[in-house]
Amino acid sequence: MGRVHFVGGEKGGVGKSLTARVLAQYLIDHGMPFTGFDLDHSHATFSRFYEEFTSPVRVDDFSSLDSILEFAESDPEQNLILDLAAQTAHNLDRWIEQSDVFGIFAELQYTPYLWHVMDDGVDSLTLLARSLERYTSDDLQFVVVLNFGRGEDFEFFRESDAFAELAKRRARILRLNKLETRLSQKIDFNNSSFWAAANNRQIMSLVERKRVAVWLDSIYKQIDEVLNQAKAGQQQ
Questions:
Q1: Cβ atoms 179, 212 nearer than 8 A
Q2: Torsion of CA 184, 190, 195, 196, to 10 degrees
Q3: What pTM was computed for the model?
Q4: Which residue, 43, 51, 164, 209, is the most exposed by fewest CB within 10 angstroms?
Q5: 35 in any annotated domain
Q6: How many domains does the structure of the chain reveal?
Q7: 225 Cβ partners below 8 Å, 6+ apart?
Q8: 49 in a structural domain
Q9: pLDDT by residue (tens digit) across 127-153?
Q10: How far is CA 214 from its chain centroid?
């Protein structure tokens, strides 16, 4: 059974592509085959770092979006990562509703995950509430990613109605710690995968490679919990 990961949040600059890249590296490091789809054609950040695994898709073109489902049908054991662009929810929602996308994935025995990446601002919280209203299927695994590289105080989120609703749905909340700015810059300017950043001596010093590895490990442990929780729920 494959998994399909919708990595979004609708707001620009909250770390959607960063989350997609970490998830991609997790699957690579754990020997899980995956294919990525980059729906952010204006930036194409996901494609830039994981080009050999990723194909571009136009979110405003149903035939382009349909290629995701065609690929899923051709290889149902594959994991899929969809890096969603900001402010594209309208087009994506039309495709999902008119094509019964989640129904198709269910037929193909895919488990769908919605990763909502957010900063600590009110816009991210408002968009999260809208996503919770829009997507109510019990089969959809909701994951909220708190990006501490884009915010430091998520107290308003924890006091919100959206947080209470997430608790009812047994959704997971993942903490994405900030990676030191200089390390992020080195990775960006070298177009480096996270594996290379943690292992390549030509890119990072010994201590910098260790910092990247520690940062990744803290996120990997949380991803383990996300995926294992869903697996346990399916077996009950």
A1: yes
A2: -130
A3: 0.93
A4: 164
A5: yes
A6: 1
A7: 172
A8: yes
A9: 999 999 999 988 899 999 999 999 999
A10: 20
